[in-house]
Amino acid sequence: MIRRFAITIANTHGMKAPGFMPGVIPAFGFNPQHKVGGVHRRRYRGSGWQPPRTPRWMILALMLTQTLIIAADSTPAAQSKTIDLIADPQFRRGFQVMAPPMGKKVPEGRLAGTNPAAGEPVWQLDQWNSRFSIATAMPELLPGGGVRYANLAKAVTFGRTEPERADLVLRIDSNIEYEGKFRAFGQPWPHFLVEQPIESPPLDQLAAVPFHLEARLVEGKRTTGPGYTQDLHCGQVPFVLTIQNRNRESKGFGDFLWFIVPIYDDRYRIVPPHIAKDIADPSAKLIFNPGGDFYTKESLHDGRWVVFDKDLLPVIRQSLQTGWDKGFLKDSRDLRDYRISSTNLGWETTGLYSGVIEFRKLSLRAVLKNNP
Asked: How many domains does the chain have?
């Protein structure tokens, strides 16, 4: 998968996701080289990897749109501040589309959302390793004001209202991408996901990080047969955060780990935990996936809306402690240095798989501690 955005506004934007090894596929931790573990998020080849820079226009757009909400109690002294970390959570501004070659982060076009007049897109739409770019797709207007873009291998829908609301719908068909042949070990796989840089306050200043997302699998079909291997072939959807050292005065500036909320994996009703080094990415960072049952007891395999609603701060802190205990993030154990610096959400298909997933009511917030 791809994941890498770290927000240094200059260091971690546009990262991939923690990876799958060119081989096996973990369960959201991403490690295409294992059975359990992986979210493969934008990897970059070569030594001395640094997260790619986010376009300046996107950074400015995020700074302008990040909302500061004051949630007041009955007395002024009890006031706490809540920051919306994700801009345009309903995807109304559309997407900046990235070209298919993985890691290059080359803008290829834009797909207008349901309200492009609201400003520049703050989301990027990644289609890594696809043979069919969606950048030139023509809009199809839907009843109720939604808009859909599609080609042979994928489709994205904004603002669908019928038969019920979905802020974003992503469809992928890797059978077409692979021409009906099972992917070999080490062969790249198609991604279709959205990503955005984030700049949270330092983690030591936070009292909570409330996360909310509702998701539903509309269609999901796995192709099996001679050549199919569960460890190597799957369709999965993670929500990924980059937890990164953003303190420029720190020796560990830029270092990070992958934090995973596993939304769906066609191999498991409930995605198992995966906490390990990302062996598919040269960065070799920690992938921290506490398992699907940490977030919900329900499964997208049932075809119903599943609600993910959790304060992520305790487990984010746990992910850092785990990283330190395992020898990651060696140059700083100071919580003040770390922030949430990016997010991504969407499909990674390492096998012959076709699927449609819907999302709505996405929210990620930072609640500051009370400091009278």
From this structure: 1
Alpha-carbon distance values, 292 to 201, 264, 271, 272, 363 (Å):
27, 9, 5, 6, 18
Both tokens of 241, joined, read 């955060």
The residue segments making up the domain with residue 147 are 3-368
Are 45 and 103 in contact by the 8 Å Cβ rule? The answer is yes
DSSP output for 13-79: EEEEESPPPSS---SSS--TTSSS----EE---SSS--PPPPPHHHHHHHHHH--EEEE--SSGGG-
Sign of CA dihedral 86, 89, 92, 96: positive
Question: How far is it, in rounded angstroms, from Cα 132 to Cα 136?
Answer: 10
- pLDDT tens digits for range 112-136: 999 988 889 999 999 999 999 999 9
Instruction: Tally Cβ neighbours within 10 Å of residue 46.
Output: 8
Tokens coding 136: 């030139």
Report DSSP state, residue 201: P
| Rg of the chain taking only CA atoms, in angstroms | 19
236 is written with which tokens? 């999965």
Q: Give the separation between CA 363 and CA 372, rounded to whole angstroms.
A: 27
pTM above 0.85, yes or no: no
